[in-house]
What we know:
- The protein is of the alpha/beta class.
- It has helices at residues 14-23, 26-29, 35-40, 47-72, 84-91, 99-112, 116-125, 139-153, 158-184, 196-204, 213-216, 223-228, 230-233, 235-262, 273-276, 283-314, 336-353, 356-360, 365-384, 390-412, 419-444, 451-463, 488-495, 546-559, 598-613, 617-620, and strands spanning 2-3, 448-450, 469-478, 485-487, 501-513, 519-527, 531-539, 581-590, 628-635.
- 54% of the residues lie in helices and 10% in strands.
- The chain is elongated and about 100 Å long.
Amino acid sequence: MKKMSNGLKARVTAGSLLIALGIIYGDIGTSPLYVLKAIVGDRTITEDLVLGGISCVFWTLLLQTTVKYIWLTLKADNQGEGGIFSLYALVQKRGKWLVIPTILGATTLLADGIITPPISVASAVEGLTMVKSLGEIPVVPIVIVVLSLLFYFQRFGTQKVGSAFGPIMVIWFTMLLVLGLNQIVHFPSVFKALSPHYAYNLLVNYPHGFWILGAVFLATTGAEALYSDLGHCGRKNIRITWGFVKLSLVLNYLGQGAWLLHQGADKLDGINPFFGIVPPWFLLPSILIATAAAIIASQALISGSYTLINEAINLNFWPRVSVRQPSDNKGQIYIPSVNNILWIGCVLMILYFKSSTHMEAAYGFSITVAMMMTTILLCYFLIYHLKWHWLLVLSVLLVFSAVEISFFVANVAKIKERWMFLFFELFIFLVMYVWFYARKINNKYMRFVDLGKFAPQIKELSEDESVPKFATHLIYLTKANHRHEIEDKIIKSIFAKKPKRADVYWFVHINRTEHPSTLEYDVTELIDDKLIKINIHVGFRVQPKTELYFKKIVQDLVQNKELNLHNRPDGSTKYNQEPDFKFIVFKKYLSVENELGIKDGFLLKSYFQLKKLGQSDERAFGLDKSDTEVEKVPLLLSNCTQFHLIRNQN
């Protein structure tokens, strides 16, 4: 077996730490802009409310973000890559039913990405209304312009974006830390909020205190996106930077709490506690820094969404769409269609809700679902990969389930504010469900034959000069895993109607591996210099460039004088030095002769409609159109047998 380049492992450098700050922590890092404001809302400011709210935030960050994601979930890296699909790839063999929590987790994470950018940017821009001369400034148009610019610059790659955003986030977290300390030094008694007693008191004794968890959850919504962005920055970079980020967040929340308890008013009356702790002389600069940080808050979700869809495509959960790599760095991708969907969704959200306060009421429900699904898959990983004792895993499951179910119940109340989200989430779920299970049905009815039975005929055809030569090298893409098997449609293609004569017949199998960045191949000679099988093992994060790989493999075989290919003509002439290659790609369509049940009919019809919206197979596999011929093949699953045909006797 031979290997191609597998990419580089993420290293810890000053630059990589800066990029991690720029990409990973935008969402969770800007939570202080709205968390305390959402907790207090229009309630009367009391010590029980403020200290209880901060205590809940602190323990949520400790349990959910630090313990579950930074310590445990980041262990579940698939050769340095993260996200729910990477986690699924590690545990998929442990149960077929794990497909459903995977689809649910991916759906909700992608759907909630539409509200993360507008709520972060709107919260920051609204601070401008606190400046006397800017009190009437229109917030919505500014937010739309900022978001549009952000999505435009995604095409240049997350590394460039992260390099530019990193220094801004250093300034942002430093500002959080300093502003928090500035209040704490005057009222150090606020540190008692770190005791779990105050969180318990809020949830149990405060009137309707349990439902405040819906606002508390906003403090950790970026944790799932943090795991999805693992491949962009690396585990060590994330863990090292989290210490600085968490310290800044906790001190800022404590500072806001100190200000709330001593600012002299019973109600917020529209004042954001975050900007309340800012000295008047620093208000405008803080708003500008907050706006810049809020722009970056969108980045973790956007880059995570690219990763999510790229994995979904390669694991057969999503139709094939265009995926670009703006740089040579592993994990740096850009998906135009996802970028456009997110941009349109974000603009519609700000136009519908108009303010961050209204968005707070609708935010968080989907992420609680995503976190619960991750917990299910994580438990399988801990048992089967880390070999933890089942009792220890059960303890982990009980702790995180108790926390996440509590957040879920508290967030259920938000359904009425976010009902329009359900249609978007249903659409994403159906796309993934249909694509995955329709392909299962398709593959179930795929027929394979023994290639050895047809080897003499193929050899005879190759040497029959009475048949016009179709190509010097004829290449079929095959799904056959076994050495001597081939799809019957390939045999029919070779012999049917106009037989395809070639000097060498190649069968190329693209094997998607459970590892993200694999790029290896092996070669098997079935008939001397006549029938050759190539298996190219491609990681689920890698965009296949099949024609490029094939030509490189043939070049290696010729240079190494393997299979005697160096003694054979390759089809090139003095007029054209390029070898004569021809790839055959099959395009299936649903035959009208099928009699399908309701479920199978829905799945397959939807599947073929989705295929029309995605990339063609030749583009998806990286084949040049001039070297490719597409053959249409009917998909016949069940013959229509129940009919009565009567001859007219007249």
